[in-house]
Fold:
Amino acid sequence: MNPFLAARLATGGTGIPFYVETDMDYGTGRFTGLMVPGTLVAPFGRTHADAWALTARGHRRIEEVQVATRDIWTQFHRIASLGDEEVVVSRRLGNRLLLEQPSRERSSQRLPLLSWPGLEPGSDTRQWLRALKGEAPEPSLLRADGVRWTGAGWTPTGRPTSIVEGTPGILFVTDARPESSPQATVAGMVSAPEREAWMQQTLSLAAGPRLARILTFYADSLITDPREQEALRYLKNWNLEYGAAEPGASIYERLLDELPDSMGASQPMQEALSRTVRTLTRQYGPEMSSWRWETVQERTVRYPGATSTPADGGRTEERFVQQYLPVTLRAPGHPQSLVWGAPPSADSLRITSVWEGTLDLRSGTLFFRRPAVEFNRFLGTF
Structure:
């Protein structure tokens, strides 16, 4: 089986994904992959033997570290504003920022350090310029969270939140929180899926353990309201699919919004179920079979710059809102699935929230999907 590198890079729920597919010749070979327009930042790509996919996001990390005072680098910044000037001091250890002022009397001490990708240079310009001179590029961004292929196998880079080896030959890396990532789905695979099947997966095995724990608070003897009993039957019979016609997915997602911060007492849990049933009934009617996932999710995608703020008819904001109308999407999938918001019909509306693609590391062919709302739907009244 050919090795494939797959990536899903979120770009938000509005606008056109700012990544562009690129095929570029350089001094000793060719780069194929994804770049940020106008830069040499490539979060996904291949240069001859090397290939990589970065998560394109990072989390701040604060940790206490034993620091030698002599290793601290102090930098002074002059900030001018409204005619005044102020000097700001920052202290660093490498690319990490000290959050407390170190003691001058001690040669070594424990200090809290902030790590965040935004504190580091975000371009590989120097590496790419060397490539034009005939040297193979070695992107410094490979130190970020992601996965890398060197011809012999997969290795993670940086410190991603989750690393899963589902089956031999599959490595899954994400910076999503473990409780909301597709980690359980990948870990539960018994064989490598076909690429087409993987892109259309709407199952959420990650929801299984959490749902099982939630249901332990809803014993039949405690739930007496017939409507709440019916909602529980939907949850117990739910197949963890976020299919278009699944009421169970709708009830589960609404219940998650209503749950208390700590699931430790039965009374708050029962109140959360009651609020869930009341809310869905008020919004979508009393017939639970009509609480289809494609109806209840009602994702609204707005054109960049659009605003929902009401304005007078003659104001610029009102004219803008009238010309760039929002689009409501009803489709299968969930936020951690590759098909989130993308309906099965190729002629239907598509969301603008992600760039998704796979790279055949043998042939160098880039397969990609760019889910997007049809542009003329936003400009329909223009």
